[in-house]
Design goal:
563 residues, mainly alpha, 0% strand, Exo70_C, protein transport, Exocyst subunit Exo70 family protein, Exo70
């Protein structure tokens, strides 16, 4: 019973669903009909609105074109306004406000570029011509301002540099100014000048070059010309003294200061080449190089003058005691000083000689100077009346030369042959002194027909086996005493300054004199002692003579002429 009822209920629901679907279809058909009607109406409306839309688009495009035109006009007007502002600044010139002036030029260049790209503008050609003309005037004014500033810079820096030199003590002197100076004053000024050269080149000129480089860095401007102009007077002021010294009258004492000056110029030349680089500074480089060569030339000529002056020295100075002459010590000291400048002299000789000649040039010059000295000493030795003093003088002076050379670098340059040759000359003069000074007195101790050392017995008649009478022996003793006393008095006033040479010469005399005297005393003293007043004749023992020989060559004063 339940099942039929359920089936019935299901049928009713199905019938209700079918009815609902039918109503929904009817509603759908009605909506489609309505929407179709709307589509027709919209199409009609769109057709009616199309002309209005076309007019609206045209209006909008026109508005956009007007807006673009107004914006372009604003840009052009802004360029005109900027041009007027730039023109006003340019007409005022760069001296009031250089930075604004430069900004105005940049703006004008920008305007020219703008109008060059916008030539469709009706007046662009006129605007461009005006702007370009104004730009040319602006650049011309700027160049004039730059030249004025450059002039001011040169004058200010040149003045500052010259003031610094004057504060240092640099003077612009002529040859005549130098010629009038006392040697001590000139020597001091040369020493100062060498100091000033080093300071000026290494500090002042180098610093000025750095300033110039920094100011004109990253520019096309020829800064070397500016640097050359502002340093020109200072360079001339500094070098004028060196030129004056190099051109002044030559003298031997100037050689070493000339070498000092040449040395500083050689030392500074690389820095001068660096500081004064470029075509603009060629005159400065040439001037300094010219001074270097002139100093070298003057120094070389002074060498020749010195050699000639040594050989021809006619000074009236006479060393009465036969010691070392002032000329000898002067020349030897001069030569010693030369060896302090060996490297400088080699450079100097290279200015005029080939490389191979340079090595031997100093030796040649030194030998010539020594030979000139020796020639002069030979002449001076002839001034002595006593030949023995002549040889003593030569012995002393040549010994001084040899000893000085042996103790200095000159030995390596002159060589052992020179030393040995001149040592032999010393010995030859010593031998000549002994021969001339002592031959006569030694003859009093020599008995003809037999030496003083023979052992012949005395005869009872007052004679001896040699046949010499007592009277003759007395005369010989008297002659010996007189000669020896005279030699002692005179030669104790003479001088042999070198202790070793002095002792050697005394010993050489003693080795000849004392044995002969001892032999003579031994042989003939008994003959005298047997007579009256033997002490009148035999005044000295050999020991007395030896002691008195020890007083020779000491340069003592006896209150009478030494010559």
């Amino acid at each position: 019973m339940g099942t039929p009822q359920a089936i019935e209920t299901l049928r009713q629901r199905a019938t209700l669903l079918r009815e609902s679907l039918q109503k929904s279809q009817t509603n759908t058909d009605s909506m489609v009909a309505i929407l179709g009607s709307f589509d027709h109406r919209l199409s009609a409306l769109e057709a009616a609105m199309r002309p209005t839309q076309v007019r609206t688009h045209a209006i909008r495009m026109a508005h956009e074109n007007v807006d673009k035109t107004l914006k372009a006009a604003e840009v052009i007007l802004a360029q005109f306004d900027l041009s007027r502002q730039a023109e006003a600044k340019i007409l005022r010139g760069p001296h009031e406000d250089l930075e604004s002036y430069l900004e105005a030029i940049d703006q004008l260049r920008s305007n020219v570029k703008f109008f060059s790209y916008n030539k469709s503008f009706k007046s662009s050609d006129g605007v461009l011509n005006h702007a370009n003309n104004l730009l040319s005037k602006a650049i011309l004014k700027l160049e004039e301002e730059f030249r004025q500033l450059l002039t001011n810079y040169r004058e200010a820096r040149a003045y500052a540099l010259e003031t610094s030199l004057r504060k240092l003590g640099v003077e612009k002197l002529s040859k005549d100014d130098v010629q009038k100076m006392q040697w001590e004053v000139l020597e001091a000024k040369i020493g100062n000048w060498i100091h000033f050269m080093r300071i000026t080149v290494k500090l002042l000129f180098a610093g000025e070059k750095k300033i110039c480089d920094q100011i004109f860095d990253d520019t096309n401007f020829h800064k070397d010309y500016c640097f050359a102009e502002l340093t020109a007077n200072s360079v001339l002021m500094l070098l004028s003294f060196g030129e004056a010294v190099a051109k002044s009258k030559r003298s031997p004492e100037k050689l070493f200061v000339l070498l000092d000056m040449y040395e500083i110029m050689r030392e500074l030349q690389p820095e001068i080449e660096t500081i004064f680089e470029g075509k603009a500074c060629i005159e400065m480089r040439d001037t300094t190089l010219s001074l270097t060569k002139r100093l070298a030339q003057t120094a070389q000529e002074t060498f020749g003058d010195f050699e000639e002056a040594v050989e021809k020295d006619a000074s009236k100075t006479t060393v009465l005691d036969g010691t070392v002459h002032p000329l000898t010590s002067y020349v030897i000291n001069y030569v010693k000083f030369l060896f302090d400048y060996q490297s400088t002299l080699k450079q100097l000789f290279q200015e005029f000689e080939t490389a191979n000649e340079t090595e031997s040039q100093l030796a040649i010059v030194t030998m010539r100077i020594m030979q000139a000295l020796q020639s002069n000493l030979d002449g001076k030795s002839k001034q002595y009346k006593d030949p023995a003093l002549t040889y003593l003088f030569l012995m002393n002076n040549i010994h001084y030369m040899v000893r000085s050379v042996r103790r200095s670098e000159a030995k390596d340059l002159l060589g052992d042959d020179w030393v040995q040759r001149h040592r032999r000359i010393v010995q030859q003069n010593a031998n000549q002194y002994k021969r001339v000074a002592w031959t006569k007195i030694l003859q009093t101790l020599t008995v003809q027909g037999g030496s003083s050392g023979s052992s012949s017995a005395l005869g009872g008649d007052g004679g001896n086996s040699s046949g010499i009478s007592r009277a003759n022996i007395k005369e010989r003793f008297k002659s010996f005493n007189m000669q020896f006393e005279e030699l002692h008095q005179r030669q104790s006033q003479w001088t042999v300054p070198d202790p070793e040479l002095r002792e050697s010469l005394r010993l050489a005399v003693a080795e000849v004199l004392l044995p002969a005297y001892r032999s003579f005393i031994k042989r003939f003293a008994p003959l005298i002692e047997s007579g009256k007043n033997p002490q009148k004749y035999i005044r000295y023992t050999p020991e007395d003579l030896d002691r008195m020989l020890g007083e020779f060559f000491e340069g003592k004063t006896w209150g009478e002429p030494k010559r």
